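Board notes, transcribed. Complex of a protein with XIL.
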Amino acid sequence: MHWNKLISVLLFSGVLAALSACGGGGSSGPKTGGPSFPGPGPTAEEQVAQMRVDYNEIEGLKTLADFPIGTEVSAANQANSIFIATDQQPVLAYHFSNLVAGSIMKAPWLYPQEDEFAFDPADELVAFALANDMTMHGHTLVWHRYDWVGDRLIPEWMENYSGDWSAMLETYVHTTVEHFSGRVTSWDIVNEAVDYNGLTNTAGYRDTIFYRNIGPDYIEDAYRAARAADPDVQLYYNDYGLSSNGAKLDFTLTMLEDLLERGVPIDGLGFQMHITLDGPSAVNIEAAFRKAAALGIMVKISELDISINGRNTPPPVDWSRSPTLTAALALEQKARYKEVVAAYLDAVPPAQRGGITVWGLTDDSSWMRTIWDDEWPLLFNGDFTTKPAFHGVREALLEQ
Ligand code: XIL
């Protein structure tokens, strides 16, 4: 056990004792003493209640890992900005060692006009992270998506751009990475460049605005521009749907292998992991991590959240959605978080662990809530008390 973990365990032994007494540590029934008869054990509701503690009544998650433990935040004038809803700030500093912006380090914020970069909001966030002993992950420069529920993700001028796309991409990536050089530790340079076709079970380059205007070389061009701007920052490729361990992962790894062989500066692969209670399986998740680690690059869980009502299993499935987060579902989610983190620890050697980032702090601030009211995908309740999901992550880190 790592020394800081040991200190944490000693400091919070009271909480630990309470949790294991209620079965929160994963077991129930009497453990010591003379003859005894296992009782019925605590109900699911009792277990959830026991696991609900104030964020600072338990050790910081970051103290349990030798790699970054991150979360996604809103900033600037966004609805849930940490500079408006400032009560998030101590929670972030207590549990996390790395921050990533949900929106404000994407193209429309950083490069709103062809002749104008706008770095102030991101600078404010990066300064907050550094002042609170957290590192900053930049996300994301080259992305195909136009918008998400009204949040514009490619600036209008870029959509209509008719000039030299290669030169524009070079200027965009170089200027941005250089600006944050020395303050941002890692960047998602290209996000979601691979497309998967479920009907044919094949994957290939996604038809993005960059692909159409530059061709597949836009990917390596972007990494080379980033490296030229900062020799030290870690450069990631980031995508979703990789942990299913299917055709999309295979295509992505072949693409990365080819880029690496040709000397393109890519340091790591980010698995977004917006997953559900029922998929992908832990076996596939672990196998996918192992395949990525075999490339010798950093492997990161970059956007972890676990949907309660989403379903991955092929039909027939029960499509009804639970209108509440029942205790049974919360415990299922805990087990799921635990197996994901355990798979990461089993499959990725310590030197290649880029870290684990959850995509948001509290359930009510999750991006999923912009579409569904009945989602509870994260680790904390709205009042910053811990959910069973938090304890799933914690237990996996403690047991490594
Ligand atoms: C989402 C943010 O969480 C939202 O706030 C924003 O409106 C849209 O983008 N994959 C990604 C992330 O790489 O950037 C997305 O984040 C979630 C899916």
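The pocket of XIL is lined by residues 102-103, 140, 148, 151, 191, 272, 303, 367 (CB under 6 Å). The mean pLDDT is 92.
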